[in-house]
Every structure is written in C-alpha cells, then in structure tokens.
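We store sequence, tokenised fold; for instance:
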Amino acid sequence: MFKLLACIQFVCHCDGETFISADDLRINLWNLEISNQSFNIVDVKPANMEDLTEVITSAEFHPTHCNMLAYSSSKGSIRLIDLRQSALYDSHAKLQVFYRF
C-alpha cells in the first residue's frame, strides 16, 4: 500500500501558456487562457484505493513538441503520450511503454 501525499508534486510548462501539474494519481493539463478549469489527461486512481499498485513519480513535456509528454511510475515504467490522439489516457488507451526496470 502506498502512502499518498495530497499535493501537486510536478509542474511543467511547454510554450508559456500550456502547463501540466501532477500528483501521485493524476496529471492535469492547464491553459492560461482557461483559468477556471484544468483537463485531466492521466488518472491512475483505482475505484478501490486498496487496489492501488503504482503512482506517478514524474511528468514532463517534450522540450519542443507541446503535444508530447512523458510520465514515469513507481513500477519503473516510462510512458509517452501524444495529446493529439486522445484527451484522456486511461487503462483502455494506447500507451507506449518505452522502458521498464
């Protein structure tokens, strides 16, 4: 069982107006022009928290392509996401796992 912190652990910007924030369970996309809401793009929270097996450990945009981002998990996976393919990446979405320890 993981002990979760109820705080944002990562903030990353790409183009000066698009940002992501990440905590242990979710990655949200923000835009400065839409200041009253964010868009959830990754959610690893299970329906039953006792079934939690991994958490998000880091998230970063690609340095030049704002539609691409990568995130890592406590299981050692690094996943690449292309935001042009889907707005929400869940267990049914196609994720590209590049490296697993």
Notes: Residues 10-99 form one domain. The radius of gyration is 13 Å. Strands lie at 10-13, 18-22, 26-31, 34-43, 56-61, 68-73, 78-82, 96-99. The chain has one domain: 10-99.
